[in-house]
Automatic annotation (TrEMBL):
ATP binds at E82, H218, D222, G223, N224, G225, R226, I227, G228, R229, Y260, Y261. This is Fic family protein. Keywords: ATP-binding, Nucleotide-binding. The active site is at H218. InterPro entries: Fic/DOC_N, Fido, Fido-like_dom_sf, Fido_containing, SoFic-like, WH-like_DNA-bd_sf. SUPFAM superfamilies: Fic-like. Residues 130-282 form the Fido domain. One of its GO terms (molecular function) is ATP binding. PROSITE patterns: FIDO (PS51459). PANTHER family: FIDO DOMAIN-CONTAINING PROTEIN (PTHR13504:SF38), FIDO DOMAIN-CONTAINING PROTEIN DDB_G0283145 (PTHR13504). Residues 151-177 are annotated as: Disordered. It comes from the Bacteria. It holds the Pfam family Fic.
Length: 404
């Protein structure tokens, strides 16, 4: 790491590790910030967009059914930043029936993303406060049984790590975080104290500072980026900015990956907090608006489906099956049987009806243990960009109407 790259405004200090060079230890939060009209405007825009998303969440008929697609989407996008190539459909397919899922890299990638979902859901369900213990528990789930599982899952690192180009030695690293031992433990303890202190800062500013600090500390051997992004979601909920886990910044970070890393490094080297805060607040505003539109599209789709089938005086069980699709848009007959607590024959008839109506499509190509997928849901989740108005539902709804 080039010590000469660190300016006088760098928010930390360099400590000698060994003959290979130095490491960076960030100062405790908060830094001195310069407030002006631009920062106030960005903060207001982000807060307004979050408020709209929070309002929409009140109308979700079943919060779990409608938030889980966002959890899975976040898991995929956050993992893609780290080079994982699994799609949203891959993750649901793995959950639907692992035995039929392809082997090799595709399966390994999907398993990593599935672990991310498990880690996030654990954090959301846990009664623990946001703490070093909770982060370790989430990290243990993230790294369990996948590539990197031998890299101290659930433990803060006991060795020096660094960030740099592939194959770079530590002396040539772009960044070297605090050394293990006392420096690392104290940095984590200070961050934990900041999270739970009354800092008299706007919550979104606090979250932006905490995310930077966690990435600067880099407390795990592997998986720091993913845990750091999970932390944002937990903080949004803990600070009361959201009531449901609908907002994630990984899509924004992935689209602007170069800027994301450059701005974090800019804080470290030159104390460029304003540039990082501007970037973070713009991301919150953009992704909150995107999540609002995406969630509204899912609600509209559900309402469209239910109206279509209610015209045919169907059973409540079939309507319940439609709701199941939003949390499990890839599934088997056996899984629908378990979700609805009905007989196998009844679940099979429901799936056949939904397939004939164009809501489900069979994707395994097998005669037994068949797997079904709801393409309209994936059209919403996979879309790069969605309009605010209700989208064209396509032939699926038309086919359903004709069939009824």
């Amino acid at each position: 790491m080039n010590a000469e790259a660190f300016g006088a405004a760098s928010p930390g200090r360099l400590v000698r590790v060994d003959s290979a060079g130095e490491a960076f230890v960030p100062n405790v939060l908060p830094p001195d910030l310069v407030w002006d009209g631009r920062l106030a405007r960005l903060l207001s825009e982000a807060g307004h967009a979050l408020g709209e998303l929070k309002t929409l969440a009140r109308f979700l008929p079943n919060p779990y059914l409608f938030t889980r697609p966002f959890v899975v989407r976040e898991a995929v996008l956050s993992s893609q930043i780290e080079g994982t190539q699994a799609s949203i459909s891959d993750v649901y397919a793995l959950e639907a029936q692992a035995a039929l899922f392809p082997q090799g890299e595709q399966r390994a990638d999907a398993e990593e993303v599935s672990n991310y979902v498990r880690a996030l859901e654990h954090g959301l369900r846990s009664e623990l406060p946001i703490s070093a213990r909770l982060l370790r528990e989430m990290h243990a789930l993230l790294m369990s049984g996948v590539r990197g599982q031998h890299r101290q899952p659930g433990e803060f690192r006991r060795s020096q790590n660094w960030i740099g180009p592939p194959g770079a030695e530590r002396r040539d690293a772009t960044y070297v975080p605090p050394p293990p031992g006392d420096e690392l433990r104290e940095a984590i303890s200070a961050l934990e104290r900041f999270i739970h202190a009354d800092n008299d800062l706007p919550p979104l500013i606090e979250i932006a500072l905490i995310h930077y600090q966690f990435e600067a500390i880099h407390p795990f051997v592997d998986g720091n980026g993913r845990i750091g992004r999970l932390l944002i979601t937990l903080l949004l909920l803990q600070r009361g900015l959201l009531s449901q886990p609908l907002l994630y910044l990984s899509a924004y970070f992935e689209r602007h990956r170069g800027s994301y890393y450059d701005l974090l490094l800019g804080v470290t080297l030159r104390g460029e907090w304003r540039q990082w805060l501007d970037f973070f607040l713009r991301g919150v505003a953009l992704e909150a608006r995107d999540a609002t539109v995406r969630a509204q599209h899912l609600l509209d789709l559900r309402e469209n489906w239910r109206k279509t089938y209610q015209q045919g005086r169907v059973s409540g069980t079939l309507l319940s099956a439609l709701d199941v699709l939003f949390s499990a848009p890839v599934l088997t007959v056996r899984q629908l049987e378990a979700h609805l607590e009905v007989s196998y024959t009844s679940a099979q008839k429901i799936i056949e009806r939904l397939e004939s109506g164009g809501i489900l499509e069979e994707v395994s190509g097998k005669q037994r243990n068949r797997i079904y997928r709801a393409p309209a849901i994936f059209a919403i989740l996979d879309a790069q960009e969605l309009r605010a108005e209700v989208p064209d539902r396509g032939s699926a709804v038309e086919t359903i109407t004709g069939g009824e």
